[in-house]
Every structure is written in C-alpha cells, then in structure tokens.
Design a protein that fits this description.
- The chain is of the alpha/beta class.
- It folds into two domains: about 5-165, Flavodoxin domain (Rossmann fold, 3-Layer(aba) Sandwich); about 185-260, Alpha-Beta Plaits.
- The protein has helices spanning about 15-25, 60-65, 90-100, 130-150, 160-180, 200-205, 230, 260, and strands at about 5, 30, 40-45, 50-55, 70, 80-85, 110-115, 155, 190, 210-215, 215-220, 240.
- It has a six-stranded parallel beta sheet, sandwiched between helices. Strands 3-5 form a two-stranded parallel sheet.
- The longest helix is centred in the middle third of the chain and has 23 residues, at about 130-150.
- It is globular, with a radius of gyration of 18 Å.
- It binds flavin mononucleotide and iron/sulfur cluster (2 copies).
C-alpha cells in the first residue's frame, strides 16, 4: 500500500469521501479510527497518510483529536486532512495542523469538502436533489484533492478573511464549550414510545456508547456526537431534548449502510 486513509464517520459522508479518495489515489488502505481508539500508539505503515472525518462544532471530532497525537509518524513523508462539513469548517484544519505538530510531524495539506449537513439539532436535512448535487460536488472536489496529494504539494486551506473571522468567532462562542462537553451531551438524547426495540442504535454506534435496557437505548456518557444513532433509527424515535428533531428528517449517505457505520469499531490487527 502507498497510502493509509484513516476515517471517522457518523452518517457516511466522510466514508463516501474516503472511498472516493482511495479510488482516485489507488493502492490505499482504509482504516477506521474507531477501531484504534484503545491503541496507545498507532504505527502508520505507509509513507503517505490521510485523515478523513466530519467537522463537529467548528473543530474536529474528539476521537480524531485524540487519535492524531498517538500516530507514529516516523516513516511518514506526506500527511493530509480532509474534513467533510455542512458549510463552515471553522478551525478544524488549524486544529488538525496543531495536533500533527504535537505528534512530532507536520500537516502538509488540509481540505474541506462541503457535503450534506446532518446536525438536525440545529436545522433540517435537505431533499433528494440536494443529495445528488452533493455527490457531484464531492466527486469534483475529490478529483482536485487527489491531484494535489499525488503531486505531494503543500496546500493548507485557510478560507477567505470573512470566513476565517467567522470560524474563529463561532468556535470561541459555541464550539469550544460544545467540544468540551461532547462526550456527555448524550444526556440530551431521548427516546419516544414509538421505539420498536430493534437495537439498531446500539449496533451502529461506532464507540459502543449505547446499551439496550428492556429494549430501550441508554447512553453511557462517552459519546462522539456523530448522530448515527439518531439518523439510523428506523422509526426516528431518538430526539435531542429541547430541539424540534421530531419534525426533522433523517439522513445517511446513500452509498453507506448501517453495517458500514457499525463495522468501524471492529478491531484491526495491523495497528500497533
Ligand atoms: C455534532 C455535529 C456538529 C457539527 N458541526 C458542524 C460545524 O461546525 N460546521 C459544519 O460545517 N458542519 C457541522 N456539522 C455537519 C457535519 O460536519 C457534516 O454533515 C459531515 O459531512 C457529516 O459527516 P459524516 O456523515 O461522515 O458523519 C456537524 C454535525 C454534527 C453531528
Ligand atoms: S451515542 Fe449516538 S451520537 Fe453518540 S457516538 Fe454513539 S451513535 Fe454517535
Ligand atoms: S434504533 Fe430506534 S427503534 Fe431501534 S432500539 Fe434504537 S431507538 Fe428503538
């Protein structure tokens, strides 16, 4: 293998993007970050490596923030980060660059790919046409990223001055607090009587943060806020307290299944 692509995903956008990157780069191995969450050190077996994950709260998911400093980058020559997002990446790429420095390496390239926004605590999901537009946009963007990565270029996305200002302000005002509390924000999840006790929520959770008690989900306080449980529940029974999520749609990337999300936590023998 020439490239290792580490990914984290809740509703499949980042996995779809990682798969497209792997196709474009050729000879790339996809490794779920959730499968490495208990590894103290993560040996990177290739000279080129990338991370693909969503933006959460104008930054990176905690599981990704905690993964990067554990990477053994001694044999790595080129690193890149691709964040998928709804519209505003905020400080996600800057935070990625800081974490790579902490790991004793360097982030050579950082990209943002606008996809379908899945944060239904704040807004509704959009319709079918928007999904098709997202797929076309992603393919185009991935082709550009592949070209830059293949050439081994430095390319850290910074956004325009207004976007930078807004991203910084949003992280300071909201993001930081939400990131700090992310793990226990699952206490705001509730389940409706319409629950059919199917166990899908516990099955898909990439970090085993749900146990079923008398057929109903109970959240265990080490949540990543990925929203997989909310979006994959077949009867949309999981809500976010105080938010109109009952009135909102559910979404997952059309090419990504519940099995794909669930399998992220499967242990992989390769990592050290
Ligand atoms: C908890 C949470 C926070 C989010 N915060 C942001 C954000 O700050 N900026 C943004 O553009 N999108 C944000 N989003 C949207 C996701 O980044 C976007 O939908 C992403 O593509 C989802 O990736 P996934 O399908 O791989 O999980 C957020 C989503 C969630 C669930
Ligand atoms: S409990 Fe739900 S939101 Fe939290 S990590 Fe698991 S699937 Fe994601
Ligand atoms: S996925 Fe939905 S219906 Fe199934 S157990 Fe969880 S909350 Fe209940």
């Amino acid at each position: 293998m020439e490239t290792t692509l580490y990914y984290f995903t809740g509703t499949g956008n980042s996995l779809a993007c990682a798969r497209a990157l792997a196709r474009g780069l050729g000879d790339a191995d996809l490794v779920p970050i959730a499968s490495l969450r208990h590894h103290e050190r993560i040996g990177v077996p290739t000279r080129r490596m990338g991370i693909v994950c969503p933006v959460y709260f104008y930054s990176l998911p905690l599981i990704v923030r905690e993964c990067i400093p554990r990477l053994d980058l001694s044999g790595v020559k080129y690193t890149f980060l691709v964040v998928t997002m709804g519209g505003l990446p905020g400080l996600a790429i800057e935070h990625g660059a800081e974490l790579f420095r902490k790991a004793g390496g360097e982030l050579h390239a950082g990209f943002a790919v606008r996809m379908f926004a899945n944060y239904i605590a704040a807004y509704n999901v959009r319709g079918e046409r928007a999904i098709r537009a997202m797929e076309r946009r992603m393919e185009r963007r991935v082709a550009e990223i592949v070209r830059i990565v293949r050439e081994g270029k430095r390319h850290l996305r910074r956004g325009g001055p207004f976007e930078r200002l807004l991203g910084r302000a949003m992280f300071r005002w909201f993001g930081r607090k939400f990131v700090d509390e992310a793990r226990t924000r699952d206490k705001r999840f509730t389940v409706d009587p319409s629950c059919v006790h199917c166990g899908t929520c516990a099955y898909v959770c990439p970090v085993e943060n749900i146990q079923l008690v008398d057929g109903l989900p109970q959240w265990l306080g080490h949540c990543e806020q990925c929203y997989a449980c909310i979006h994959f529940c077949p009867v949309a029974a999981i809500q976010v307290q105080g938010k109109p999520t009952r009135l909102r749609g559910r979404y997952h990337h059309p090419a990504v299944s519940a099995d794909d999300i669930a399998l992220q936590k499967a242990a992989r023998p390769k990592a050290t």
